[in-house]
Amino acid sequence: MTQRLRILHLEDDPMDAELVLMALSAEGLDCEVQVVSRRDEFDKALERGGMDLILADFALPAFDGMSALAMVRAKLPDLPFVFVSGKLGEEAAIESLKNGATDYVLKSRLSRLGPAVQRALTEAKERVKQRQTEKALEVAYAEIEKRAEDYRNLFNSIRDVIVVADHNRTILHVNQPALMDNFGYKSPEVVGRSSILLYANEDDFHNTGKEVFDVEGPVDGKLIELNFRRKGGEVFIGELYAMKRLDRHGVVTGNISIFRDISQRKKAEADLRESELRRYQLQLELVYAAEIQAKLLPRSYPEIPGFDVSARCLPAKQVGGDFYDWQQVTPTMFNLTLGDVMGKGMAAAMLMATVRAALHAVTLYNAPAQAVHLAEQALNEDLENSESFVTLFHAQLDSVTRTLSFVDCGHGYVFVRRANGAVETLSPRGLPLGVQGGEIYQEGRIQFEKGDVLLLYSDGLIDANPQLELTNEIIAEQITGEESALDTVDRLIALTRQPDPQPDDITVLVVRFTGQ
């Protein structure tokens, strides 16, 4: 039987508390939730203990989540703590993670709460296992030290400082190379003196004595993190492994201290935490960027009398530079666009959004050639500064006359497969946006007959599976027999086998004339 999850929830809105419980229950979590809204209630609940998890709103009228986090970390440093808040800015989110929060979830995205809770609980269990493993390693290290046959060679080879002392903690032996490297002393300078000279704080010296060194009988060794002092007065952070010295019969004959300088490790750990925080922040930004970019693409297919339209875009990374779009100009007139920004990733995605916005501003009231001309004028400076360019196919479909007027700005990956199987390449073709050629874009025109299919795609379709050596004719053969635009799109995407990693963005747009 699964143990019930005990949760302390800091929340002043009963409705929000109920929604949180519903979200957890929807994930199959059996929860016992105690809801509090004031500091005194929260403090009493912490004193009682028994919680598996803390959920907290970020801001309450008389209390705040950061104060609650500080209280939890002071009393229960390993207890998972997840913010569940209506608003949590980027700076506040980062600050909460720096201060020890396990995760945060926006109330508008409670679908993330279940996975976040599961992850927080898993990490807590892993920390317990890690401590157990570290303890086991400490015991193993002590056993290796005690059983070493060639004691003198081992003693002088170890880079940690090993101090062998009597019951009064007077230094008897010390490994000279490590002593000089870590403390700056030569062996004769410390032998016969109290080991207190190695400690930066006199209280630390006495406390370790009470816990290990001053005990008469055998005790378990203990690993302690303390500050130590070099011969020149410099203080550094280190680890002390304190243990009793035993003879072969197990009789206590004195004390052993193992000193390790961990200042560089501490710095590396801090740098790693900072790096992980930056990586997490970047990953979070990429997730949000991908969500926004996906929402920029049309959410439904256009209803064009007599035509069936479908499209799909697969970014090579979380975000990409390909896009497709359509606009209804009149009840019978529709604009269709497919663009491919040079490159992929975040830079291409930012340009993609700029190009799409510029086109939206001019395509509704202008014919394709004039619309592209106006868009290029608006985009030239941005494209020049970014040293990039955009291939673009922009068209206007008249469903009454079955006529497609189009401008091809250096794209080229487009053809019409006629009902009889013939493949017709579209022309004219101009230069990409951002390539200064001084030309005036020319419009082309085709007319649909029943069963004709317009297929428009990006070069990522070819790059994804180069062994197929896809041409317009081969692609036309591959889609023979497909009855709908959606089936045609799915068939072409299947040809790529969706490699991982995907070399480039893949976008396909299909227009089929049904004659209905």
Automatic annotation (TrEMBL):
Q: Which GO terms describe its biological process?
A: phosphorelay signal transduction system; regulation of DNA-templated transcription
InterPro entries in alphabetical order: Bact_Sigma-Reg, CheY-like_superfamily, PAC, PAS, PAS-assoc_C, PAS-like_dom_sf, PAS_fold, PPM-type-like_dom_sf
Residue intervals of the PAS domain = 147-204
Which key words are in the record?
Answer: Hydrolase, Phosphoprotein
Q: Which CDD domains match?
A: PAS, REC
Q: Which positions does the record annotate as the modified residue 4-aspartylphosphate?
A: D57
The name this protein carries in UniProt is: PAS/PAC sensor protein
Give the species this sequence originates from.
Answer: Citrifermentans bremense
